[in-house]
User: Fold these one by one.
Assistant:
Number 1:
Amino acid sequence: MRVHVADHPLITHKLTVLRDVDTPSPVFRALVEELMTLLAYEGTRGVRVEPVDIVTPVSPARGVRIADPKPLIVPILRAGLGMLDGMVKLLPTAEVGFLGMARDEETLQPTTYAERLPEDLSDRQCFVLDPMLATGGSLTAAIEFLFARGAVDVTAICILAAPEGLRAVEQALHGREVTVVLGALDERLNEHGYIVPGLGDAGDRLYGTV
Ligand code: URA
């Protein structure tokens, strides 16, 4: 597993406001979208492109375009939805599939409650969006789901992660190649499965259900 922590003062600045308990939902949502655009830039370094010939006003030139089959963006519902617009801004030709995962607050285990993805993902590049990599349960389940449909190239983009969650995902994947791009790697998980210092419940803060 390759882990890349995006290290940029703009990301750290926006993360600081995002973490602040006094930041209201509308600002939180806008910040997640902005942060996501920056993380999408990092996360798409390996996006597949193919050569294309064009003509500039001055001369013929060779460039690239996003290759077929188009990348698939998979936000994990519900909090991953808040990351979608920022991602699509950078990758407008990508397709979007949805995976609904909820965490059982007692067992902390993920359950899949919704799924809207192509049956066959062979040769598809997939970008999974999940803001909080906490225990790693939902992200592992989502990645396993994509592998089971034939995906071979998976990048997960998360705003924050706990070291415990990263280790859990790595162990569960048994050496299969996945890239994880993070805004920051935090200290730890607390006894309730929350990332510390973290930002609280990302879904609640995005959608105002605090
Ligand atoms: N999910 C969240 O939204 N926040 C955490 O800290 C952990 C899981």
Number 2:
Amino acid sequence: VLPSADSTNGSDRAPPDMAAMQAKFASIQQKYTEEASKRFRSDGLAQYVDLQDAKDARIHSLGKDPWVDHAVLNAKTPAVKDGGRYKFVILGGGYGGLIAAVKLIEAGLVNGPDDLRIIEAGGGYGGTWYWNRYPGLHCDVESYIYMPLLEETGYVPKQKYATGLELREHAERIATKWDLHDKALFRSEVTDCRWSDEEEVWNVAVTENRGPEEGERKLNIQANYFFVLSGVLTIPHVPKVPGLENLGGSMFHTSRWDYGTTGGSQEDQNLTGLEGKRVGIIGTGATAIQVVPKLAKFAKEVYVFQRTPSSVSWRGQKETDLEEWQIANKKGWQRERRYNWVTYLNNCAPPEQVNMVGCGWTEAPAYCAIIGSPNFGIIEPTPEKIGEHVGGLLMLDLPRAEKARARIDEIVKDPETAKALKPWYPVWCKRPTFSDEYLQAFNLPHVHLVDTDGKGIDSATSTGLVVQGKEYPLDILVLSTGYRSPAYGGLNPAKRTGINVFGRGGKSFDDKWDAQGASTLHGVISRGFPNLFFGPTAQFGQSPNNTETLDIAAEHMTHFIKKAEEKVGGLAVIDPTVEAEEGWAMEAVKRAANLAALSVCTPGYTTSEGEFNKPNQDPAEMMKSARMGIWSEGILSFMKVLEEYRAGDLVGVDVTPRR
Ligand code: FAD
Ligand code: NDP
């Protein structure tokens, strides 16, 4: 029985030709399965090496910070003293760390000069937008809802999709407004943190890299409250392509763009260094979609090495019209716009509602497969109900998917190239992309798609890359090959960050997570690790607008501390109870079947390169996977749950005054 078009669709967006869609449904599903099965690999995540862990010196060096100015930073008095004690220490100077810092300040929790410090591995603020400076970089969620704290800073983005430079400058703007410049220790990595049962503080080990002249400085600092906000797409990785380390010419990862080779800069995107050069790029994810048109503009030849095509919808970039932009005068406008946007992705937009953002995302209601929807709530974990649910989602996505594929035929002139560029998987398997330049670039005579039919690069020689026995000689290779999966280590935030965390009684965070799976209260705190707050993934609400989830998380973390300090009249020790944590884990387990839609996915970072899709009959392992569930009714419902909780008296949390 075919799922009905509206089995998961509460809105009126069913397209008129649903009969035709239903007729195609079975054959398209078969195609999805065939294409996904070409791509499954037994090595899963092990097919990659993180740059920071690479044994080969050349590959390892690709991870170095190209932007840090050691001379300027060395001339400053370090913001953090060895042996210093601070009330709040935040790991991470990206938007996540900045939002948390601002919330703590605005809540009146930061008062003394030693109350707040931020430890950041990069040489400045911005996180993603500090590291990534590749040509063409923009946010893919509208800047008016993506850029944090617009209302509070009074800043109006220049375009619907802000450039990477504007996004980095905004991080600096936030730091300036809330006086955070002298609170950060840059080019410094947290390696370990250990809770002291005697002193009731976190001991945090930090290594500051003071550059080639001064070397490393090791510091041990203390924090009453420690935040791990290390991001989800932070650790660049590359595939283990045999011989890659010996490739001649220049090679770099997109997150560390080498303007020395390409010419230009983040401010001046004239890549004159590419003139006369044969440039290859491995990868066709969201980054490559933005980079390829820029390479095409300057290089002599461009070879785009594709394993799986992205889905590329229209973008609709435009300048901000300040006359029209009256919205910024209304209090609460950003949240209102964010909520309006996300209802389309949660597939629950009321038909009469005006679509404020009106972007390609709002045409992807089936994205609710991985962020939830109030329409389907909790799915019963029976084969019938799961089949109906997943089938309904595939059907819901079909009009969008068909439109995306038809768009390729409309734009790309060469039929073989057009065919190879077609994505055969539903929208929730890989981040959908939006561009009015990428597909068009393949009409240029010097831009060549090298489709590997799902297999990837065979090997590298000293002169080029080999695919299916053919060598492609190159002068420059761009590695647009992504990051350590956010799901690495079963969504364990310590493993994802690469730090060792030891809580009460010296217990390791990894041991706890490995033994019982995700264990949190509201996705941000975990029993036995008092006063430790971490960026949420498992057991939290989800949105593809990352700053929205970071904002919700920071508000909740701040609430825990504010309320606890009010209760005890000073510094507090905050630890969820076992019952509350297990109760919350069971909420995730109840909702685990909702993520069954991932079972039809082609591999990618969302499924930990297919590792999630491996059949597993071990009940203990199945339970661990189930605990990774998210709030399946969607982010707006999740926010209500948190708001209701906050109206109470820190139920399920042990709060004691710090001794
Ligand atoms: P990050 O920005 O990654 O910042 C975390 C920081 O922690 C990093 O600077 C890192 O150096 C630091 N850090 C990590 N470990 C340590 C350690 N041990 N010690 C010290 N410091 C450490 N999301 C969207 O919603 N919309 C978009 O348009 C969008 N575009 C993106 C484009 C790119 C190229 C990438 C890679 C991601 C994009 N994302 C987007 C996701 C993006 O990462 C988030 O939107 C957001 O910027 C994350 O902020 P964050 O602070 O949580 O993490
Ligand atoms: P991705 O992980 O999305 O893409 C990596 C690419 O490398 C994929 O196309 C992958 O193919 C390919 N690849 C990996 N190994 C091989 C191999 N051995 N041979 C050939 N190809 C290979 O990384 P991105 O940097 O593109 O994006 C990461 C995330 O960052 C996005 O999903 C998005 O969330 C965010 N982002 C957002 C942007 C925005 O628009 N604002 C821009 C950039 C990134 P395969 O698909 O087969 O695995």
